């Protein structure tokens, strides 16, 4: 059995954190240490430089960058910043749509735009070449199972493509 890849997870925290908790907590990929809400609030209050420093430290040693794509992820400036930095650092990238997963209120969301294709992603036309997966199941439990069952394979495909 191969060792889990070290991944950096990017997401729209406020909207999708509860939706993707199971993915972040799984051992499929070794995720970056998450800044808990009090710590993240402190980092945000410290300004853009503190956020950039946190992102830089979290990206160190990562072989894969995974954007968990919700309804508004592509519009988030820090997600786009993280995409640009992962690209500059030549970290393999992939996206996974999570709109069919239920949040803490038991709600699914609409499918968002592909953040890799956003003009501010820094990828230009290359954003269309980033692997993005949309689980075929609309049932939340089946969509979650599909993601967890395939995430390690998708990461390997992204690494091979880099």
Notes on the structure:
By secondary structure, the chain is of the alpha/beta class. The chain has one domain (6-161): Rossmann fold (3-Layer(aba) Sandwich). The chain has six helices and five strands; from the N terminus they run βααβααβαββα. It has a five-stranded parallel sheet with strand order 2-1-3-4-5, with helices on both faces. The longest helix is centred in the C-terminal third of the chain and has 22 residues, at 140-161.
Layout of SSEs?
Layout: E1 6-10, H1 13-16, H2 21-25, E2 30-31, H3 37-46, H4 48-59, E3 64-69, H5 77-88, E4 92-97, E5 131-133, H6 140-161
Parallel strand pairs: 1-2, 1-3, 3-4, 4-5
At a glance:
By secondary structure, the protein is α/β, with parallel strands linked by helices. It has helices at residues 13-16, 21-25, 37-46, 48-59, 77-88, 140-161; strands spanning 6-10, 30-31, 64-69, 92-97, 131-133. It has one domain: Rossmann fold (3-Layer(aba) Sandwich).
**pLDDT below 50 for ≥5 consecutive residues: which ranges?**
none
CATH arch. level architecture? 3-Layer(aba) Sandwich
What fraction of the residues are assigned to beta strands by DSSP? 5-15%
What is the CATH class name? Alpha Beta
């Amino acid at each position: 059995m191969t060792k889990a890849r070290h991944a950096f997870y990017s997401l729209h925290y406020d909207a999708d954190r509860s939706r993707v908790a199971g993915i972040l907590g799984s051992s499929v990929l070794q995720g970056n240490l998450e800044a808990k809400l009090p710590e993240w609030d402190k980092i945000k209050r410290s300004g853009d430089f503190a956020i950039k420093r946190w992102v830089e430290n979290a990206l160190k040693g990562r072989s894969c960058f995974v954007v968990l794509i919700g309804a508004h992820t592509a519009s988030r400036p820090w997600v786009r910043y993280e995409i640009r930095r992962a690209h500059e650092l030549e970290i393999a990238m992939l996206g996974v749509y999570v709109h069919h997963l239920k949040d803490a209120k038991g709600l699914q969301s609409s499918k968002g735009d592909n953040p890799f294709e956003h003009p501010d992603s820094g990828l230009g036309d290359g954003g269309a070449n980033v692997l993005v997966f949309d689980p075929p199941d609309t049932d939340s439990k089946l969509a979650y199972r599909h993601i967890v069952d395939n995430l390690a394979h998708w990461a390997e495909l992204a690494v091979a493509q880099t």
